[in-house]
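Limitations
The C-alpha cells in this dataset are predictions for the assembled complex, not deposited experimental models. Users should treat interface geometry with appropriate caution, especially where small molecules or nucleic acid strands are included. An illustrative entry is reproduced here so readers can see what is and is not provided.
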Amino acid sequence: MASAIFFLDLKGKTLLARNYRGDIPMSAVEKFPVLLSEAEEESSAVPPCFSHEGINYLYIRHNNLYLLALTKRNTNAAGILLFLHKVVEVFTEYFKALEEESIRDNFVVIYELLDEMMDFGYPQTTESKILQEYITQESHKLEIQARPPIAVTNAVSWRSEGIRYRKNEVFLDVVESLNLLVSANGNVLRSEILGAIKMKCYLSGMPELRLGLNDKVMFETTGRSTRGKAIEMEDVKFHQCVRLSRFENDRTISFIPPDGEFELMSYRLNTQVKPLIWVECLVESHSGSRIEYMLKARAQFKRRSTANNVEIIVPVPDDADSPRFRTNVGSVHYAPEQSAIVWKIKQFGGNKEFLMRAELGLPSVRGDDEHGGGMTGGFGGSMGGIGGKGAKRPIQVKFEIPYFTTSGIQVRYLKITEPKLQYPSLPWVRYITQSGDIAVRLPDVA
Amino acid sequence: MSNTAGGGDSKLFARGKVAELRLELNSGGKKDKNYATKKIALKRIVANMTMSNNDMVALFPDIIQCMHISSLEIKKMCFLYLVNYARVRPEIAVNAIPILEHDMEDSNPLVRALALRTMSYIHVREFVAATVPLVKHMLRDSDPYVRKTAAFCVAKLYDHDRHMVEQSDLIDRLNSLLRDDNPTVVASALAGLMDIWERSDAIKLTIDYTNASKMVAILADCSEWGQTYILEALMSYVPQESGEASLLAERIAPRLSHSNSSVVLTCIRVILYLMNYIADQKQISALCKKLSPPLVTLLAKGPEVQYLALRNALLILQRRPEVLRNDIRVFFCKYNDPIYVKVTKLELIFMLANEKNIDEVLTELREYATEIDVHFVRKAVRAIGKLAIKIEPAARRCIDLLLELVATKVTYIVQEATVVIRNIFRKYPNQYESIIGTLCEHLDSLDEPEAKAAMVWVIGQYADRIENSDALLEDFLYSFQEEPVEVQLALLTATVKLFIQRPTKGQELVPKVLKWATEETDNPDLRDRAYMYWRLLSTDMNSAKSIVMGEKPPITAESERLESSTLEEMCLNVGTLATVYLKPVQSVFRSARPRKLIASPALQKQYLANDIETQKSISMFGNGSQPTNIDLRTRNAVPSAASPAANGGGNLAQAVNDADAYFSSIGTQQMAAMRIDGGDDGFGGGGLNGTGYVVNALAPQAVLQPAHGEGSNGDLLVL
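Predicted assembly:
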C-alpha cells in the first residue's frame, strides 16, 4: 500500500507524481535526495527502504530514474517494491524504454496508467497486454470501444477473448543459466542452475495447454517408470496462468497462456555441477613492476557440443600498461576501461583445453601486501553498492552452449486443445545453456 | 506498439500563461473536429500542473466546462485536474459533482468507474457527502470492474470522514460484497475492509474457518495482487483446531510456486503464522521443508527482493531454524552484490556458522575481509572475532585469522581486530595472551576511540604480564586531555589496574591521572569514576583489588537475538517494512494496529516456551480464559490485559521511540558521545554493572546505521 508514487531524475527532482492517499504531504519527496546522500555518506550499505519522521521511502533505480513510493504504514514492502518493478515493465512495453525523456513524452498516458494500475495505493491490473487493450492513445479515437476488458476482473486476468491467428504456433525456449562461485584454489563454493521456460504463443481462442517435463517428482507420484534421465527441481515458480493447485496435486503443468511472449516458469536446481568451462589462473608479480597471468581453460562437456562466444574476463590492476599476450586460440585484448583483459574464443569444442599468458607492466612500485588488486586502494570505499573498479573482482566467464541443458531437462510433450476451435497447432522447442554469474576468485599474487 | 499517437509530448512542457491557455482551450469552436485543439491545450495545462505551476488553478471554471465533452481522453485530463486542485478551490470544484453524477450513469462501465474513482479521491466535504449514496448504488453495479472500484471507494471515504461512513451502512454493504461471485471483487472488498480495520477500533473483522476456507478456494481465480490481499486477510483468521490450521496451510502452500515474490513472501507469512496453531510436529517439519526452497529462490531475484528475503530469513532462522538448515553456502556473497545485501548475508553466515562448517566460513570471511568496501570489511573482521566467542572449539582458528589480517597493517582492519580481540580476552581469560605482543606492534595505527579504548583495556587488564605496560600506558596518557571521553575512561581504569597489579610501576601514574580526571575535566562520569577509585584506593587496597580486578560476567555472541515478543511480532509481519528495520512495529509505526498471536484452544504454547525468555513468552500467551470466539475487540484488548511483561514491551517500544526521536535530531558525533557516557560498562568498572555483557555493547552503532532515527536500518546483529 503506497501513499504516493514519484518519478525522479538522478538529482532527485520530481518529474511526475501521483498521490493516492493524501496522508503524506507531497513535499516529503524533497527530503529523499538529501536523506539518500546522507545515508550514503554514513554507510555504503543503504538499503532500498528507509524511514524518516514517520514516512517510509521505498525506491528502485531504473536507467536515469528513481521510482519512489512513500507510505506511513507498515505495509507489504515486497508488494510495493515489486509494483515499482511492474511499473518499469509496463512502461517499457508502452514506451520502448523508460527514462527521463519518455516520462515527459508520454505524461498523459502515464497518468492514465497510474490511475489504472493502482487504486488508493493498492496495486490493480499490472498486465501490460491487458492494459494495452483499453489504455492507448489510439483507443480514444475509437471512443466507444474502450471498455474494461473482461480480463481485468476475470479469473483469467491475463488473456482476452477473441484472439485469432491463421497459423497456430507455439515456441518454447528452455534457457538455463549456470551460476558458479569458485574459490581461488579451485573449490566450487556454490553452484546453481537457474532455468526458465519462455514461450511465444500465437494461438487462437482460449486454448488449454499441458506441458510435460521429465520431472522426477512427477514420475514418482504417478508411479511411472523413468525412461532416460529425470530431473529434480529444487524449486519451481510459475506464471500466474498456471494452475498451482493442480501442479501441487499431480505435478501437471496446465494453463491458458497469455498471448505472445511470456515466461511460463522458472526453476532452480542445487545439484553440484562441474563448471562447464573450467578456468585456472596463476598470478605472478615480478619485483612489483610487472605482473603475469597464466590461464588455462578447459571445456568439461561432451565432445559433440560446442560453447560459443566464450569470454574470459580477468581483472588486472587499474594502472597496468604495455600488455603482451600469447595464446594458442582466440584473441586477447586489454580493456583498460574495465581494468581487465578479455580472452575471446568464438568456438570452444567439448573436452578441449587452451592456454593463455598475459604480461602487463605496473608503473608504480607497490608493497607486497596487495591481495589480488584489492586492498590497498581501499580507503574512502563507498562505491555506491556495486563493486567499482578497485573492488576485489573475480574472473568472469561467459559463454553459450546451444542444444544443451546442464540439468538434462526435457520437454516431453506440449498438448494444445481449444475445445471450440479445434485447430491443429505446432509446438517448437529449443534448448540453450548460458553462463549466468560465473565468478572464479583470483589467487593471491605469487 | 500504440505509442505512435502519444509520445513526443515533452515539447508541451513549457511554462504557460493562464490567459493564453484559456484562449487556446476555448478556440476552435465547431471547427475543432475531434477537439484536437482542446486536447492540446489540456495537455499543456496538465504539463504545467506536473511542473507544479499553480497558476493553473485559475483555469478551474474553464476545465469544468470541458468536462461535459463526451470524449474519454478529455474527461480523464479534466478529472486529473480536478483531483489535483479541488482542495484549493472547493467552491468551484463542487460544480463538477453533477457532471460526475451523470457519468456514473453512463452505459460504459469504464466511465462509471472513472467517475466514481475520481469523485472518491477528492477530500472535500461536499464530494464525500455526495459520494456516500452513490457508492451504495455502485457496490451493486452489474459490472465487476465497477464493483471492484466501489469496494476501494468505501475505504477512501472512510479515510476522508469515518463518522459519515460509520453512520451509513457502507461497511455492511462492503462486507456483503464478500459474497460476490467475482473473485476479483471479493479480493478488493477484503483489501478495503482490511484497510479500514487497520485504522479503526470500531469495526470487527471475524474470519472463521468457513470464511477462511472460502477465501482460500477463490485464491486461484484472483490476480496476483488479489492473492496478496486474500493472504493478508487470512492473518485475521484464528484457528480453533490444529487440524484446521494444517489443512489451511496445506491449501495455500501451492502459492509458494507463484512467480510474484510478494505472493510468495505473504504466503510464507501466513504459513509461519498457522504453524503456531499446529500440534503435529511432523506436519510442522513438512511445512518448514516447503518454505525453504522458495526463500532461497528469492535470493536469485533483484537486489531489493533479495534484501527483503534475507532480512526475513534472519527472523525465520530464529523462530524456525529448521527452515534454513540449508547449506550455508547460499548466503555466500557475490562480488557484485550491493553492500546492503552483503552485510545481511554476513549476518546470516554468522548465525548459521557452527563447528562443522567453521573452516569453510572462515575461508569465506577471510575473502570478505580483503574486499574494498570499508564498512563491509569491518563487519567481516568483527564477525570473525565474534565467531571465536560463539564457537569455542574454533577460537584458535578465528584468532589466527585475525592475526593474519592484523599483519596486513591496513589501519581499519587493525582497529576492528583490536576491538574484537578485547572481547575474546573477556571470553577466554588467560588463554590467548601470547597475541598481546602482536597487538602492541600496531599501537601507532590506532586512531579510533573504540579501538584505542579496547587496546588500553587490554594493557590494563594484563598489566602484570605485559613487560612494559607502564611505558605503553604512559604513551597513551601523553594525550589524555585531548582524548574523547571513551578513551579517557579506559585510561583511568587501566591506570588503576596497573597500580593494583604492579604498585611500584603505577604509583607515579595514578595520582597524575586521578588529578586530571577530577580537576581538569567537565565530564561528570569521568570525574565520578575517578573519585570512586580515589576513595577506594585510599580506603582499602584489598577491596579495591577485588572490585577492580574482579571476575567479569561471561559474554556470549548470541545475545543479539531478538527478544521473543519482538520476534513473535516480526513473524506476524513477514514481508512488511518492519522486517526491514527489524524493530518493534510500534516503535516505527506509531498508529499501527498491534498484532499478537491470539489465544485459541489450538495455540501451541509449549513451543514458544522453548525460547530463551521463557517467562515472557508464557505470560504473553497466558490468556487462556479468553472466549474462543475471538473478535477484533478482544484482540484489541489483549495488550492491555496481558501481563506486565507485555506492558514492559510496550514501554520499551515507547522508550526506543523517544530515544530515536531524540537521536534523530542530533548528529552522529554527539550520538557516539552519548553512547560512550551511557554504554561503557563493558570494560573498566565492568564487573559491577548489571547489564552490558553483550559483545556489541560497544559497537559503533552510529557508523552502522543511517542515523535517521526510527526507521533506520536496524541491523539485527551489530557485527
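Some entries come with short summary sentences. For this one: Residues 178 and 490 of chain B are 66 Å apart (CA to CA).
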